[in-house]
Amino acid sequence: MRDRISHHLRGNVVAYVALFVALSGGTAYALDGSNTVFSDDIVNGEIVTEDIGDGEIATGDLRGRSAVTRTIADGDAATEKLADGAVTPRKLACEGSDVDDVMVTVGPLCVDRYEASIWDAPVGGNQITGPIPCSPNGQDCDNIYARSVAGVEPATHITWLQAQQALANAGKRLPTNAEWQIVVAGTPDSTDCNVKSGSLANTGAHPACVSDWGVNDMVGNLGEWVADWDEQSFTNAVWFSGDTSSIGRASGEPSTAWPGGLVVGGDYADGKRAGPFKLGAAHRPWNFAKVIGFRGVLG
């Protein structure tokens, strides 16, 4: 960098020295430590981006906390130069694709506050409430986008394979079952949630059905795909806190040889079987049902 700055300033420096010698008849002497340019020798704006070659300023050139870059327009994000030279992003708020795509912070994750709905664009656009306009296997699903929007009909009749593509198109993914269990903590296991109405409700229509993290409708309304698969199973058993599971083969049950995508939380017709610990693997990843939806995470 020193050589580039020196090269940039040399013409002016030589001209000033020549003018000094010509007018005064004196002799010009170099400063101790020739080619040194001090900060007060540089007028604001005299060194611009174009004056600095690619790679001439590296992380190792910065000491301690000598460089701090912040995005301060809305305070949503900041990046700090740490003492050991690492640059670590620090996200202060979770944001979806636009102001209507609402996410909340849950530990290290950003999580959709509402059950996902399907749209024909990542921002704005039109909601898709009918059949999903791509193959159940998800291979051509580059035209659907999952968003977390309040007061709309959440997506149903969507396969696991379509759901993960809709999320990927929006920069998100399905949560794992372990992550989902973190997020559901504190959600009421009661009729505060839509567990026995027999019909689908819009997102956020049951405001008391919210987790300790501020995430809505994780119990009831729709069962939700999570990222995990197991062997397809139809055997229901009450296993914890009154909630049921149907994963793994029961004794004597023949193997199906098919995978089943995990569905958690229970739906609007599950009654007491719904809850934070309800899970099952009865549906193959390329199957869909009117009682299954999903939500996304970042992180």
What features would you describe in this structure?
This protein is an alpha+beta fold and 299 residues long. It folds into three domains: 1-57, no CATH class; 59-93, no CATH class; 103-298, Alpha-Beta Complex (paralog of FGE (formylglycine-generating enzyme)), CATH 3.90.1580.10. It is 14% helix and 21% strand. The protein contains three helices and 15 strands. The strands form four sheets. It has a six-stranded mixed sheet with strand order 10-11-13-12-9-14. A hairpin with a 2-residue loop joins strand 4 and strand 5 (109-112). The radius of gyration is 30 Å and the shape is globular. Mean pLDDT is 77; it is low at 1-24, 26-34 and 56-92.
List the SSEs and their pairings.
Blueprint: H1 2-24, E1 68-71, E2 77-81, E3 87-91, E4 103-106, E5 109-112, E6 117-119, E7 127-128, E8 145-147, H2 160-169, H3 177-184, E9 223-231, E10 237-240, E11 243-246, E12 259-264, E13 279-283, E14 292-293, E15 297-298
Parallel strand pairs: 9-14, 11-13
Antiparallel strand pairs: 1-2, 2-3, 4-5, 5-15, 6-7, 6-8, 9-12, 10-11, 12-13
Keywords:
299 residues, paralog of FGE (formylglycine-generating enzyme), disordered N terminus, 3-stranded antiparallel β-sheet, 14% helix, alpha+beta
